[in-house]
DNA sequence: GGCACGATTGAATCCATTG
DNA sequence: ACAATGGATTCAATCGTGC
């Protein structure tokens, strides 16, 4: 039986239409993840964050797709059986998630060396297309007490699109602006979830064993979703995904089978304060300028047919034709094509290559484009 | 047909007895890796380093922003018909390697997200026991030219013992002593192999497309082998493993298919001198302060979205956005770009320009950077 | 010689729009 | 559906050249 739980104490529950039906938003579903996913409408979510269990050989709590338990194991035969069961489980939830994803949605999965190779191989087998693997470097990892291995100071995330060639959301400019104006790398330094952020029970002990830091989820949501998007977390746990989604103006859908965790999550999400100023929320984007045909420069008589274009050094000379093409020797083509040809390069932006001479000075033809764009903007 | 080639020009060839026969040392075998492995004695090597093809599956050409071409890895040895074929290949060489390993030997494999999940799953299936996954963070990776993904700034290594419960070599104290007396972590910052270390052909072009830095191999050998141990590299390439083994007083056994690579490797190894001080092979330490993204200040909630930043005089007011960009009027950008814009300067250090108000006093946002640097310093 | 500046390069699954 | 084409997009480090 599937129960629906509003994400906030107010009990407000929004919903979004999708090809497969109606998806309740900002809601936590209580129950088995695969069964619950099967009841969600197809192609209804924009982003998935999954923090699946990875108790491979730890025994006791590994769940088969049919919800039966795998016994604790320590001999080889059982170890292989356990790996296979884990793979079955992984394949099942990944396939179920894939069905629920919009065509351009992306998936994030976090794991450690115990399980991430199983997960990665499974998702490749299912046709997901890996975009990056991301390393969460922990600034304050637990040391290796016995001195028998390297300090396990990181976890791995896989970022994948539903299919090869999909047009996924990636807020490149926003990430770059917040990162000292250099593009964001695949290794992220983020502290563990500790202190006040770490949820504690009445007994003062941690409420959830693997609560993820909000910083981590914030970066994921800011990188790969837009305000108003729907973020699905099929292993909702203590609700970090929901809390961050609410703060950042995204919708969430959570699935969790433990009612205690759901209680913690609900309380926590109710307390989360959304950023209310939309201007603070919309991702920084380089606004795409309208495309200006070079022919317009001629039509508007900013350049005359027959005018000479050269590169910076004057090594190449081309002549402007009435139709906006240019001629180098007896070869005719666009400013881009001829620019590429002149340099022997596979491509070229002609606007930023060709110059014209005015009052004895060389000026870039891109100045014309700037002028025309300003005019266009003024005209609305 | 299998040919045997001495590793040095002197042609000296040592050998070690093992349960399965005699293993020639400091030798490069020319031929297919799986066939060659089948002829080596069982249980004869102490350490394996493997740098298998990554199965990159590149699409078309990639151009840099200056329209020059990226020199892609398009070699035949990296072409596989399908994931299934790649898995078959992986299973075959891993099984062959396992047979040759002594019971307490360990295996290192390096890869990227294209192949590492296949490799990890395969070696788990074969009964290897993963000890760590290690992240090689590149200090100077190739950027993402189109701004479509995160900079792919790392590769992954898996360190595994032959069997669960084996008594492998791990030089814990030595690593700790060489790491400012803190445990060596699972994330290693090491530059790409460039400059004088990078082997070049007579034409001045790189001799091998994926030559690994000696620093990386040095750390592996120092961590997981002892002087006199035998290190096997089944994808020997340009011989980095052999050169480092010789420098560090380990023996090597290499397998390589391409006679050109073998020629480079042999010459290189002949020139390698055993070192007295292993620290010579440590990476040059970085002394510069780590770069702190302004987005971290928001992620860590040191400032809230919507907070007001001003200059000293309060002439300019900008507002902080969730993604770590700031907004002046309706213009969005980094603290640096907007700081420059506000002053009409070509550049500006936003950290030392913008202030926030706390308890009625103006404080420089650079104070946040100081705090974060202290907190994150330990992790580099 | 030393410094400034430009050219080059590294395992890469790297476009969007129009016709 | 595919094909053609306009034109947007990069970080750290090394090495060579010129003053």
Automatic annotation (TrEMBL), chains A, B:
Domain DNA methylase N-4/N-6: 45-266
Ranges where the RAMA domain occurs: 282-376
EC top class, as a word: transferase
Any one GO molecular function term: methyltransferase activity
InterPro entries, A to Z: DNA_methylase_N4/N6, DNA_methylase_N6_adenine_CS, RAMA, RM_Methyltransferase, SAM-dependent_MTases_sf
E.C. no: 2.1.1.-
Catalytic activity reported: a 2'-deoxyadenosine in DNA + S-adenosyl-L-methionine = an N(6)-methyl-2'-deoxyadenosine in DNA + S-adenosyl-L-homocysteine + H(+)
Key word Transferase present: yes
GO biological process assignments: methylation
Top-rank taxon, per record: Bacteria
Pfam families with a match to the protein in the record: N6_N4_Mtase, RAMA
Keyword annotations from UniProtKB, A to Z: DNA replication, DNA-binding, Methyltransferase, S-adenosyl-L-methionine, Transferase
Family according to the record: Belongs to the N(4)/N(6)-methyltransferase family.
PANTHER family cross-referenced by the UniProt entry: RNA METHYLASE-RELATED (PTHR13370), TRNA (GUANINE(10)-N2)-METHYLTRANSFERASE HOMOLOG (PTHR13370:SF3)
Name the UniProt record assigns to this protein: Methyltransferase
Organism name: Labrys miyagiensis
